């Protein structure tokens, strides 16, 4: 009997897995504390129309302003949140915060469309659309038409019928949807047709290599054509150089976002950047470079 019990204990006790689970739990507690302590901030990355330099909007990207470790990107902490209660809480904070900032900018005459990233788990919460409706009602000077939800292609197609229902309900509030990291989720044309989304965001992995890799160039070209055929907007993310921008313009994609235009930055820096961008008319240099 003792031998058997020992064996069982051996199977049940997994010190390595236990340590990991404990670390995960305590990290999650830290993150919950961080939300209470207002340590999360949103950075904003511009989205521009390369034809005339117009800043059409900004994507809100979360950062953790850690008291000792400094500004931490989502790759440092988002995976710990997935599947926990904090996922929805943090997601709701992001929505409120982005609406607050968007409303401030609208009141100043900076009429930007603001987008936020919505996790798959948060999107399928029972009361998602009610919370969104309430948040929008709290920010009357931020038009819902200027608020956009970015949903990962993989999340949207995980349960397509459910996604269609939620997206339709939210769209009745006026908000827009984009499909993030498009091209990485293997969605079929049937899915794409069914999904009530406004914009395809070409994944940055294809955009980054499109000037050297013909396959990636082909994918970028294909997504642009697909968007046109389905009457969707298309935006390229990961536009790292003006040469990328020029090549995209040549292919008929005029909306762009990426380090080549600007990195994500705090709201006050964004305002300064926007003034400089318009004053120096930086996008005009695209013409001089031309497509690669
Ligand atoms: P994403 O939504 O696809 O956002 C684009 C990511 O690429 C951002 O990373 C951005 O900083 C980065 N990026 C932008 N332009 C360039 C470029 O030219 N080159 C390169 N190499 N990278 C570029 P970030 O901020 O680290 O965010 C990573 C991911 O984390 C996001 O990918 C999004 O899926 C997720 N995320 C960010 N903020 C939130 C949030 O508030 N809620 C949720 N649920 N997810 C978020
Ligand atoms: Mg995004
Ligand atoms: Mg993306
Ligand atoms: Mg991504």
Describe the structure.
With 292 residues, the chain is an alpha/beta fold. 51% of the residues lie in helices and 19% in strands. The protein contains 14 helices and nine strands. The protein has helices spanning 2-12, 15-36, 78-81, 85-108, 120-123, 128-137, 153-158, 160-171, 189-194, 204-209, 214-229, 242-251, 267-280, 285-289; strands at 40-49, 55-66, 70-72, 113-118, 147-152, 176-182, 199-202, 233-237, 255-257. Strands 1-2-4-5-6-7-8-9 form an eight-stranded mixed barrel, surrounded by five helices. Strand 6 (176-182), helix 9 and strand 7 (199-202) form a beta-alpha-beta unit. Helix 4 packs parallel to helix 6. The longest helix has 24 residues, at 85-108. The radius of gyration is 21 Å and the shape is globular. The termini are far apart.
Quick overview:
This protein is an alpha/beta fold and 292 residues long.
Major sheet details? 8 strands, mixed, barrel
Small molecules bound: ligand C2E, magnesium ion
Lateral strand order in the biggest sheet:
1-2-4-5-6-7-8-9
Mean pLDDT: 91
Radius of gyration: 21 Å
- How much helix, percentage-wise, in residues? 40-55%
User: What is the tally of helical segments?
Assistant: 14
| Percentage of residues in strands | 15-25%
End-to-end distance: 75 Å
Question: What is the helix/strand order?
Answer: HHEEEHHEHHEHHEHEHHEHEHH
Shape: globular
Q: Which tags fit this structure?
A:
single chain; about 290 residues; alpha/beta; eight-stranded mixed barrel; 14 helices; 9 strands; disordered N terminus; binds ligand C2E; binds magnesium ion
């Amino acid at each position: 009997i003792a031998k058997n019990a020992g064996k069982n204990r051996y199977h049940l006790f997994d010190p390595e897995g236990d340590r990991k689970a404990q670390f995960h739990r305590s990290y999650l507690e830290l993150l919950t504390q961080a939300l209470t302590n207002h340590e999360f901030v949103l950075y904003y990355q511009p989205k521009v129309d390369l034809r005339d330099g117009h800043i059409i909007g900004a994507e809100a990207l979360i950062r953790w302003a850690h008291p000792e470790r400094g500004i931490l990107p989502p790759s440092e902490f988002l995976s710990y949140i997935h599947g926990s209660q904090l996922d929805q809480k943090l997601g709701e904070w992001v929505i409120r915060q982005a609406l607050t900032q968007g409303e401030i900018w609208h009141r100043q005459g900076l009429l930007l469309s603001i987008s936020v990233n919505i996790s798959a788990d948060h999107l399928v919460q029972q009361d998602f659309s009610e919370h969104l409706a309430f948040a929008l009602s709290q920010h009357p000077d931020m038009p819902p038409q200027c608020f956009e939800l970015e949903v990962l292609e993989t999340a949207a197609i995980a349960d397509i019928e459910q996604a269609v229902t939620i997206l339709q309900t939210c769209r009745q509030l006026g908000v827009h949807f984009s499909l993030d990291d498009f091209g990485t989720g293997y969605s079929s044309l049937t899915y794409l047709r069914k999904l009530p989304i406004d914009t395809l965001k070409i994944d940055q992995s294809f955009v980054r290599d499109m000037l050297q890799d013909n396959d990636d160039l082909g994918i970028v070209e294909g997504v642009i054509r697909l968007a046109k055929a389905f009457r969707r907007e298309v935006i390229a993310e990961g536009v790292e150089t003006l040469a990328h921008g020029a090549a995209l313009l040549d292919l008929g994609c005029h909306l762009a976002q990426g380090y080549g235009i600007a990195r994500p930055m705090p709201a006050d820096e964004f305002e300064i950047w926007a003034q400089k961008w318009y004053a120096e008319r930086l996008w005009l240099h695209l013409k001089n470079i031309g497509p690669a």
